[in-house]
Amino acid sequence: xxxxxxxxxxxxxxxxxxxxxxxxxxxxxxxxxLVTLLGPSGCGKTTSLRAIAGLENPYSGTIRLNGExxxxxxxxxxxxxxxxxxxxxxxxxxxxxxxxxxxxxAYGLRVRKSSQADISAxxxxxxxxxxxxxxxxxxxxxxxxxxQQRVAVARxxxxxxxxxxxxxxxxxxxxxxxxxMRVELRELQRRLDxxxxxxxxxxxxxxxxxxxxxxMNGGKIEQLGSPEDIFNRPVSRFVADFVGSAxxxxxxxxxxxxxxxxxxxxxxxxxxxxxxGKRDGKLLALRSSYVHFGGNEANAxxxxxxxxxxxxxxIQYVVDWPDGQLIVRRPPTEMLEEGSPVTVxxxxxxxxxx
Amino acid sequence: xxxxxxxxxxxxxxILVVGALVLYPIAFLITSSLNIGDPQLFPPEEWGVGNYLxxxxxxxxxxxxxxxxxxxTVLAVFFGFVQAWxxxxxxxxxxxxxxxxxxxxxxxxxLIGALAWGVLLGPKTGLGxxxxxxxxxxxxxxxxxxxxxxxxxxxxxxxxVAFVMISASMKSMDPSLEESSRVLGASKFRxxxxxxxxxVAPGVLSATIFVxxxxxxxxxxxxxxxIPGRFYVVTTAIWESALSYPPDYGHAAxxxxxxxxxxxxxxxxxxxxxxxxxxxxxxxxxxxxxPMDVGAAKYxxxxxxxxxxxxxxxxxxxxxxxxxxQKFATVIIPQMQFTLANxxxxxxxxxxxxxxxxxxxxxxxVSTLGVPVIGVIAWxxxxxxxxxRILMEYVVMVPQAVPRLVFGLGLLWAxxxxxxxxxxTLWLLGIAYFTVFLPLGLRTIAGVVLQVDxxxxxxxxxxxxxxxHQMRTVTLPLLKxxxxxxxxxxxxxxxxxxxxxxxxxxxxxxxxxxxxxxxxLTASSELSAAMALLQTLMVFxxxxxxxxxxxxxxxxxx
Lengths: 354, 558
Description:
Number of strands of chain A: 21
Strand content of chain B: under 5%
Largest sheet of chain B: none
Number of domains of chain A: 2
Distance between the termini of chain A: 29 Å
Radius of gyration of chain B: 25 Å
Radius of gyration of chain A: 24 Å
CATH architecture of the largest domain in chain A: 3-Layer(aba) Sandwich
Mean pLDDT of chain A: 91
Number of strands of chain B: 0
Order of helices and strands of chain B: HHHHHHHHHHHHHHHHHHHHHHH
Mean pLDDT of chain B: 84
Low-confidence stretches of chain B: 280-284
Oligomer: heterodimer
CATH superfamily of the largest domain in chain A: P-loop containing nucleotide triphosphate hydrolases
Shape of chain A: globular
CATH topology of the largest domain in chain B: MetI-like fold
Structural class of chain A: alpha+beta
Strand content of chain A: 35-45%
Shape of chain B: globular
Number of domains of chain B: 2
Helix content of chain B: over 70%
CATH class of the largest domain in chain A: Alpha Beta
CATH class of the largest domain in chain B: Mainly Alpha
């Protein structure tokens, strides 16, 4: 990475009294990137974001924005929120009810003493981007959730910030609107080339919109990587469980094939060929969507369909196999009867040893 | 089947009894205010609005009332706002403790406050003024027997009310509204001006109007500090017309009802503003307040917050204590003569001893008999589907809306004209206390009744329990904390009752609060101080028990 990172966090620790909310987190975000902090509630993701915005005082660690140190472990610079030049979209939107939509969006520009003409032009530009132009003069107190969300985004980008922080911006919307806004946010971020740090607990959302994903748990980073990495090559049981649907099989590595493929023997004695993960792993993770019925992958094992559940977009099968039950997700076109014998097969590439 | 008969009869009987207790005095007030004939006659022989027109012949009283209420409101809202801001929005040491202490001024009552400030800043003899003169000044530092003095004392008391209302509106504000302003580049100061103040403005405005309405109807401070200087506001004028000889009930009733009307209108405005103007209630969520880091300013701010507690509670109580143990109250140390005679006198002199005893008896019996009755009323209103329960709620809440003193006037006139010889006895005071404390008891018990999920009771019935069995095993145990709280609150309210008691107390049925005022106006301030402290002690003991019970209950539930 040659360009100066827009956001650089090293060894960040945030404490509330006795409890440590963020416990030694480090990462860097390059210009134009969208990075997601993903994790269950209480994992420290929002606290990290708020520390970057200057809304929490970290216990130790340093935070740099555009190469400038804004916080250094309580010593040295301690730049307040308003001087950090970042922008933020809040989970509750935080739309000021005593102002019109226009005034809300114009706030950051007014604070920066832009000219009246600049303000009008910029507000009009961003309201158009979020398709809220016709609401400009409305009082913002009776907007719907989706409209408030759009205003919050417009307000956050109106003064052309280089960094925008998103704190679970879509979590208060219903599922359909959330899926729609997800696409729009990604479009906007790409178009304006805004560096973004995005907090969410929704793994699907994180995978869909991010350039990179940081999975957090208990105040620490579990894994940092591209969405494909996180999904296909989880490094811990936590990541495999939290992101997507995975089967876990206990056992240990028995040997290695001539081509380097590891041979993992499960507790029930089944041998599975795996290429990814740690040699000394005691657990094998297998995504339920990477398992086929029939076929000729490296691993092929006999089983029986125990239960079938139709989900619409996919069918979830529970298959009895030597090591208990295996969850298999197949497209809705592959319909098999409960009780019928099947061969489950899967590639060694998708078997990850943890 | 007898049980079913009871349940069918209980609502009409209660409505009839409660309705009579509440509405009968008000009916009397209305008729006597329209009586322009012989004021002693009932029913009136001549009807007219003369009594109301007479109000405009004395614009000075209306002017005085508005002056005192306005000054006091401005001061009270200022105190309340500053305290609310410091205690909810800034990080000062000992914030939680201070927040709890903010309840104390409320339990001090305006009567005790007025007496204490009389002792402190009364002309010439006031401790503060004595000290001032001892420094070589030839005039008083401040004369508390003045409109400003009355306003000051009322403001210290109502400051707590303003604090509770304003801090509630500050706590209900989403902190991210301010945070987003900061992140977008606005300074702390700009955020305060552009975001915080507009957001809390409706809460402050409705608190202002609410406090103003309360000030219009307040009696004790104007009574203690206004009467010696012949400075009258509406409430003291009502008292004067009703108890002077010959009493002018018509005039008093007209003033009382006009006051009632004025308060009703102002409170109505406050409610409308609350409902339509408040931004904070949009989400209805409670937020974890994030107090801001104020740096070194936290010590001065803590000093200001403590300053209010000192001025509203500690200083007055200290002044009363110092006075009560002296023969002649003074701050000049060589002249001090300490004595316990004032306390001895409080129990022995003439009718004073019985006053304490009577107040205790009344407090205990009114709460003990009142709580079960109000409990049944609360259960009927909020839990049953019996017809007439909505009407009952309105009737029970009426005494809440009428200024206490005005209600007392109605009770006086109503019970004088009834052929049951209980006027001038404790019985009448007991009935009157029960009537005026109905809303207090109902609100307290209702708070708990509404918390208890209906399905808990329904489950008991489904499990096969009869109605009485369900009440005994499920409902009453769940309501217990509310019932205990209601008992103590009614007890406290009874032992410090003034507005109704001044009208209904007879020579053989003295109670504390009016006796203290009498002794203040006719006997010595040292004796009054001793009595006031004894009353405060009774109230504080009950408050302490209440907090202990409350803590035990919440402790058990978590």
